[in-house]
Predict the 3D structure of the following.
Amino acid sequence: MSTKTKLEHFFNDIWIEKGYKDPLAVITFKFSSEEAFTTNYPINVKVTILITKGLQKELLPLRIIFPDSFKHPQEITSPSGTPTAGIVKIRSSPPYEGEAVIEFTQSGSFGYIIFSKNKPRYYAANRNVITISPYDTRAILEKITPKHSDPINLSDIFPKITTIKDSNASVNMDKIIGKEKWLQDNFRKILREEGSSPIPQRGKDSAHEVADVEIFNKEVKGKICSFALIVKGFKSFKRKKLTWKDIAHQVTKAYRGKPDYILVLSAKEPVDGLITKFREYAISVNNKNLIIFGPPLDCIRLLMSYKII
């Protein structure tokens, strides 16, 4: 369950010509594509031009042509059978900007040409405005680039939890105190009811908890996701609130199985800053949405929604 990273590249240029005291315009290019800028792959290009006051009538209409590129998808309109070049048409009224999708069939560094009133006027074809890599780069990135899980929450995993209000759950807080194995067994039961893969029973209570068992799979938002479950009960640690020190070893151990998500359900409230610690760890392993935390109230709501309490 992953999304591709959007890559962006900016380039600024100044349009200067002999016989003019000031630049004719300042040009900003914004290129964007998925994962990388490669051959035979669509690249979105947006061009914004700040024309010097008083020159609009002389210069407009404008087109930016990338002579080494083609329109995407490729379109053949000429009798010679040559695909249409990558062209960005600039608006003739403020803001002076345009956008197009182009592609390059060869790798290298490329520039552009400005057409004014349908005639080439400013040549920057040899300028290094955008660098294009071979298409094979995508296969390499596919192997080495970490995949980021989509953001989800407890209600996405357990839809029934939305049927229980916080006010109704708060009166049952005492029912999860001191019931370590009972909590874990019932969360297993809920997972089985939701159609996830089975989780083996533990032999005895310990601080290792469910992080020691195999990762389970469950369909969420139409996609099969892998989860590692960690349950923190009252007997797992002596502190009044859950800290990163209490759970770090379990989180790192759970991540060895490379799950899409690590689900942490706690019978104790977290200390200030724990959620930030979760976020920092998730970012450090290149999966910012890795950890989903369920505080005590959500644990109660979950148990109530499946009629366990």
Notes: The radius of gyration is 29 Å.
